[in-house]
Amino acid sequence: MDRGKYGFIDKAGTVKIPLNFDDADFHFYEDLASVKVKEKYGYIDKGGKIVIAPQFDKAFNFDEGLAVVCIEGKYGCIDKTGNIVIPPQFNDCWGSFSEDLMQIRVNEKDGYIGKEGKIVIHPQFDYAYPFHQGLALAQVDGKYGYIDNTGKWIISPKFDDLGFFYEGLAKIKIEGKFGFIDRFGRIIINPQFEKVRDFHEGLAAVNIKWKWGFINQKGESVILPKFNEAWSFQEGFAPVKIKNKEGYINKTGKIVIPLKFKTARWFSEGLASVGRREKEGYIDKTGKLVIPFQFYYAGNFSDGLAGVSIDDWNRNGLIDREGKYVWGPYAD
Predict the structure, then answer these.
(1) Beta 40-44 vs 15-21: how paired, if at all?
(2) DSSP of 56-97, one letter per residue?
(3) What is the SS3 assignment for 166?
(4) Residue 331: per-residue pLDDT
(5) Which of 2, 177, 231, 236 has the CA that lies 20 to 30 A from 170?
(6) Measured at the alpha carbon of residue 265, what is the angle toward residues 316 and 213, in degrees to the nearest 5?
(7) What is the pTM of this model?
(8) Rounded mean pLDDT of the chain?
(9) What sections of the chain are H helices per DSSP?
(10) Is residue 332's pLDDT more than 60?
(11) CA-based angle 72:76:80, to the nearest 5?
(12) CA-to-CA distance for 92 and 112, rounded, in angstroms?
């Protein structure tokens, strides 16, 4: 984005599609990206050519040949030629198909349609979410459970809160306490924690008497609860906080990067964003500062690049692993 206009660059920071659009998707999906011209959305190809004229109030990414669009407050689907294949008729939807089904909302209830536009699971849920590995999270009468692709309850709606599955387990809440179930709905770790985070790299952060520690998938405590905050493991490290300082532990609970930062985020591609005073920079896994504190916000690395903000989100850029701008206010 530059002066309120959007376009596309390559990894070297070279502008490939001029910044002519009022809004644009972050990525191409199936070789097309949604863009906004004045008040309407359409689609361009990777050459920057408009292939579906701006005519929609909203336009989502293509998935398996279809994209959700919104016209006058109603949602439907188009194909890659721009033809309407599912007429706009639904009050809301998730924006894409998942396992050949898409959540839609009709008269304040959620259900699912197939790719022909026919209702497969009648709108009956207070809320429903995308399918993953044959199951979808749904809520009815304030309770959560999981349904299969016929709408049958596989895990009965009996939980006050219920998360998505990570590493085979999902967090649950019963009578104010959190635990975990497996994909059959069996309680694997009894509800006993004030708060929990999802499993990552075999461990989950849990809160006991308002201190954070970590358990394994058997529910055994492997890192005693002694932190004011703790986040999930990523690349073998977990950010933790004691009082008002943050740093990193390994999977034995040993502090391997001292708690001396105002903020400490997950490692990605070997680097982590950390903050000191009002600026953020990056450290490596030894704790060495490799990109100096200079950013208002420093995001995670992906494919060798990270998004950063210079001041209050208004001046943004992309840097490489050396801290050099490939796009943004200070790029060469």
Answers:
(1) unpaired
(2) ESEE---BTTBEEEEETTEEEEE-TTS-EEEEEEESEE-SS-
(3) strand
(4) 55
(5) 236
(6) 160
(7) 0.89
(8) 94
(9) none
(10) no
(11) 115
(12) 11
